[in-house]
């Protein structure tokens, strides 16, 4: 699946997108974030406070417990504020 990173999540990881093949036991957004956090220092820094990072599955906001099966694209980004 394609993983997209935005704002400070992207800055900490050092890339805006990548293709990832998650193991079968990774079934939710939260599990995917934990899997990614274990990939290295930048990832660990980006996901060190998982409750702060938001996600979208195929361009629709998703909760941490949302299933990722069949997702084509998952995006991670910081909370957004309005103005």
UniProtKB/TrEMBL annotation:
> Record's superkingdom?
Bacteria
Q: What InterPro entries is this protein classified in? A: Beta-grasp_dom_sf (IPR012675), Mopterin_synth/thiamin_S_b (IPR016155), ThiS/MoaD-like (IPR003749)
One Pfam family, short name: ThiS
Name of the encoding gene: moaD
The protein depicted here goes by the name Molybdopterin synthase sulfur carrier subunit
- Parts forming coiled coils: none
């Amino acid at each position: 699946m394609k993983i997209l990173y935005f704002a400070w999540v992207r800055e900490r990881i050092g890339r805006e997108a990548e293709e990832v093949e998650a193991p079968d036991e990774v079934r939710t957004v939260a599990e995917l974030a934990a899997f990614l956090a274990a990939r290295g220092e930048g990832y660990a820094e980006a996901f060190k406070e998982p409750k702060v990072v938001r996600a979208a599955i195929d361009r629709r906001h998703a909760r941490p417990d949302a299933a990722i099966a069949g997702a084509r694209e998952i995006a991670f980004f910081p909370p957004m504020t309005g103005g």
